[in-house]
Amino acid sequence: MSTKVTVMAAAVLATMAAAPLAGAADFRLPAFDTVTLPNGLTVYLMERHEVPLISVRAVVKAGAVNDAKQPGLSNLTGDALLLGSKAHNKTAIDQAFDFRGARLAGGAGTEASTVQANFARADSATLLPLFAEIIQQPSFDEAELVKLRDRKVNGLKQAKEAPRNVVGNYYKAMLFGTSPYAIPASGTVSSVSALKQSDVQGYYQHYYRPDNAAIIVVGDFQAAEMRKQIESLFGAWKASGPALPQQDNGKVQADKARVWLVNKPDAIETTFLIGGVGIARNDPDYVPLQVLNTIVGGRFTSWLNDELRVNSGLTYGARSEFATLSQTGTFAISSFTALPKTEAALALAHKTYQRLWDKGIDKATLESAKAYVKGQFPPRYETSEQLAGLLGDMYASKVGREQIDNFMKDVDSLTPERAKALVDKHFPRTKLQTVLVGKADAIRDIAKTYGEVTELQISADGFQPQ
């Protein structure tokens, strides 16, 4: 390990140690400047001087939702940005960051692509220009791109051996049908295998443009100086063609109870997801729903985990989650169980979930969850890297800082009466959507009790019925 790595690791620990131990109720998002450059690029600058570190992040509003004809293209493009720039090949860039104990990473998700770097303040003059090159002048070296694509294809071929790796893709495909939100970020074996250098270059030219992106810098710098540096490095970046239109990425389809039974003939377990429509990331009820989900399946002592793991021994774990997107979201209960226990596990999961309506949430349970969530919240946003990630999410999903600043107040104000209203409003109770991945011959009759069944073969390419 280099001296720089050791120094940076110690600095990260120092950041955590130096974080103020103010009462949880006093937590607010640190001040930051927002600037829009003449070329349309959004810039966030947040000074944090506790340790000499800087975290920089580029966020482009381009992801799987833009892959309608070529699933996996955004993911390949996002990773391919790290294959080198026109002035520096991959080896030179890797060495520049590694030698200084810095970190460089990238990738693409459902709606956004990100490149991030973390480095010491002293290395900013060297590494920030390289970061700018990667964003604006990627080489997409063909030989490196082919190797990257082939690695992704091999990963896709192996992924379905472990149903927990892919059950979420089936769930999104089921809930969103043929709309953009149904497109798997990783793509499929056939779609990724067909991707070429020209596809990546075309995707980059269309979506990677300053008026569709943000640069976020958090750490030990002076905002005025950093703004000048960002303007110098990114001011000449130009967008070609008209601004990109806002697209409708789809809504959850849940007009009746349905089951997708994904047949894995050699399975000895059944993996399942149960749920329906959720909320968008900027929904005004986002914060209180984190508290309520904590009770249902958001922590080790949740109802679901207690019943399915601790009390019955039907599984090693069970949870629930509101998975948010910019325009909507999903809710799901998730778990897995030994094949012979499938019927019991599904029945208990449904029974436990129905406690939300049958018994409701009492004050003691609610207060416990509120304390837990408040204790978990501040540590999520202590380091510069975490804060840069938060600002990136806020940009991509149009989240206002008031959601963060009012977090503690929103948690504290949650009463049993308000909890009941939120449960009725946001937790899907009827017409539930279910994905089961397992041995179809053994669980087909069980599946029929939960809705209209559609069977798929896990060996088939992709995640939609053939």
TrEMBL record:
InterPro entries the UniProt entry points to: Metalloenz_LuxS/M16, MPP/UQCRC_Complex, Pept_M16_N, Peptidase_M16_C
Is Signal a UniProt keyword of this protein? yes
First and last residue of the signal peptide:
1-24
Transmembrane stretches, by residue range? none
Q: In this protein, which residues make up the domain named Peptidase M16 C-terminal?
A: 198-371
What Pfam families does the record point to? Peptidase_M16 (PF00675), Peptidase_M16_C (PF05193)
Gene Ontology MF, one = metal ion binding
- All residue ranges annotated as the Peptidase M16 N-terminal domain in the record: 50-184
Record keywords, A-Z: Signal
Mind telling me what this protein is named? Answer: Insulinase family protein
Give the species: Rugamonas rivuli
